[in-house]
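Q: Got a minute? One more chain.
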Amino acid sequence: MTEPATILTDLRRVLGEARVMVKAAQLAAYESDALTSFKARALAVVMPETELEVIEVVKICHKHRVPFVARGSGTSLSGGSLPVADGVVIALNKLNKILKLDPLERVAVVQPGVTNLAVSTAAAPFGLYYAPDPSSQQICTIGGNVAFNSGGAHCLKYGMTSNHVLGLKVLLPDGEVLTLGGSSLESVGADLHGLFVGSEGLFGIALEVTLRLLPKPQRYRTVLAAYHSLEAAGEAVASVVSSGLLPGAMEIMDALAIQAAEAAVHAGYPKDAAALLIVELEGEDRAIEAEFLELERVIRASGAYEVRIAQSELERLTIWKGRKSAFSAVGRLSPDYIVQDGVVPRGKLGLALKEIERLSGVAGLRVANVFHAGDGNLHPLILFDGREPGALEKAEHLAGEILGLCVKLGGSITGEHGVGVEKREHMPIMFSSSDLDAMKRLRLSIDPLELSNPGKMFPSGEAPALVSHAPHPLERAGVITRE
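A: Always. Here it is, folded:
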């Protein structure tokens, strides 16, 4: 690798002095993303303002064999935009233009620094919106959504980011620019833009993203149900699904999450509930009213001790405000916490939640549960105090146990947060060595120098120390078997 002074000279030639940041105070703001347990300080943070500047920066990095990490708002919860100590962070926030919005074709072409919510705001006058809605949608960027295949509360009905990206203009790690996909729902040939979505920055940088827009629903019906146990709320989800209904969203919050949300935004949730279930139907007026009658019947038969139905748009938004603030609000309960992101089959939600409660008790750590119940995407928030010696390691061990549980129950170690650095040592519990080798070979075929977001996703070769290989309690009980 070339001397740092030479690299910085080349970067300043393209961007100027002010947009190549090297001072300690400037770099500190970029040394981690939303997963603050991992930190690293880059050689430099650069702020390109145009597509051509991004291309030139990547070409410089390739020329000097300098690793780079593309970053938007830094909301990744898996360390996905963690810097490389001797590398360059390419901050894309200034590439924030909506380049095209075609209401007739229902597509938007945006730069990677456009925020998720900004797309729906721009489309609203035409009766359209962008469906994926992560909890951080007010600040997370489309580039990051593409990198990690983000979902959100309404992914049950509408799918993940990959279901709404029609085409991409991408910058490969050697500086080559390619167009993948297009603007049509029907593509021809290999699904290369689908391959790029969810690749966690290992294949390069998205410069432009063509998104599918949907008509705004005519009608919403939102129900809030309170339960005396978390397991009962999980079983209620299975009842809704088995009834044949397909809600736009189904979310669960446990007592700790309810307590945090109430303290933060005063959503008016029942404070004595062990769990809350939010179910939202959306679509055409007549169909939704018919579905709502069935939903109300199922919810009232599910053991809920209190059922509230939003009577206005304000009440609906208040219910969702509490849910979407839950992650940040948990900071009121604990100085530190780890957000996990595993998936279990919907039919095993109740079992998974009961087992997480048991693991929490064994570890002596509180766990707040907030999750997309409709697709079994769990988000346990493990609370700890990082000032206590060994507390972080204890929390990480519990997080690993929860991921192992998800896989044992037939699920996944991630639903929408990605692998990043946090889960890379857990990849072998889900994928065989030949699976991982195939992934690695694919990555190397595109980025043989491993310059683009290195150190993410692939195991370092160390044993996954946080995963217990002892017989699992559910195994001993005969509920699950080890393959």
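A: Residues 462-483 have pLDDT under 50 and may be disordered.
Q: Perfect, thanks.
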